[in-house]
Amino acid sequence: MSVAAVAEARATTQRVARTFAIACRLLPPRVRDDVYLLYLVFRTLDDLVDDGRPEAEERIAAVEAWCDGHPSNGSGPTREVALLTGLAARHPIPREALADFCAGMRQDLAAETFRTEADVDTYCYRVAGTVGLVMAALLGTREPGRALPAAAALGMAMQRTNILRDIDEDLAAGRVYLAEETVERFGGSLAPGCRRVLVEDQIGRADACYEEGLAGIPLLLGGRRAVAAAAAMYREILRQIEREGYGARAGRTVVPGVRKLAVAARRGVLVR
What average pLDDT does the chain have? Predict the structure, then answer.
């Protein structure tokens, strides 16, 4: 494991994922650096897509080839493939989950829209439920038949939270990650002050995913406190959206740092 890669992964996590970085402090030392490296893989691909970088498709294709067990091309493995290869030597990385993540990245490359809630669920599974599955592989599980669906549900809950938090930012970028039929059912407008009932509905869907996901935390062999803290901090975004009037004003919803730390500490203490 490259010391430089771990240092970059830690710095990236702390710079762009402060909530996740707080939770990582509660991880067992034996897996903490590998979780940082895993985050760097996911974050790099996501940023390449979001930033419209010309190499995004090639880098996604390289990970897809790795998932299929194909060797790298003559130019050598991409950084993501090199990191995944190292992680797979230490953990039973589910390659099918990584392939599904890449499918989600391709949906973003194509700027796909979502007609139904089932379409949104598929997307949330691909870009975030898969992250939960790979995290579960690193941390270990008992009763995988129960633990893995719960891990995927928790990732999907966090992605649905992201969608609600970032409605206005996404609109400014010309993207909508909500189901078209749901938006139509609740009035057709995403303007601030006009979307309360829609947001209430979406919060309910996210909360249901959290409940399913939280039920699987006791089935993890390690990192239970970290996962519980991360889930609690992310779920608090939903409560902040409620406190601010369910989208009554434009802008990104932010949970104050003091509240975030209090929520993380409470969940970390309660979970064994």
Answer: 94
Assign residue 52 a region (left: φ > 0; alpha: ψ between -120 and 50; beta: otherwise).
left
**CB-based contact 43:128 (threshold 8 Å):** no
Going by CATH, does the domain composed of 3-270 fall within 1.10.600.10?
yes
What is the spatial distance between Cα 82 and Cα 98, in angstroms, rounded to a whole number? 14
C-alpha closest to that of 140 among 31, 11, 16, 246: 31
Torsion of CA 11, 41, 93, 71, to 10 degrees: -130
- Report domain extents, the chain: 3-270
Three-state secondary structure readout of the chain: CCHHHHHHHHHHHHHHCHHHHHHHCCCCHHHHHHHHHHHHHHHHHHHHHHCCCCCHHHHHHHHHHHHCCCCCCCCCCCHHHHHHHHHHHHCCCCHHHHHHHHHHHHHHHCCCCCCCHHHHHHHHHHHHHHHHHHHHHHHCECCHHHHHHHHHHHHHHHHHHHHHHCHHHHHHCCCCCCCHHHHHHCCCCCCCCCCHHHHHHHHHHHHHHHHHHHCCHHHECCCHHHHHHHHHHHHHHHHHHHHCCCCCCCCCCCCCHHHHHHHHHHHHHHCC
What one-letter code names the amino acid at 15?
R
pTM passes above 0.90: yes
Distance CA 64, CA 81 (A): 9
45-64 residue pLDDT tens: 999 999 999 999 999 999 99
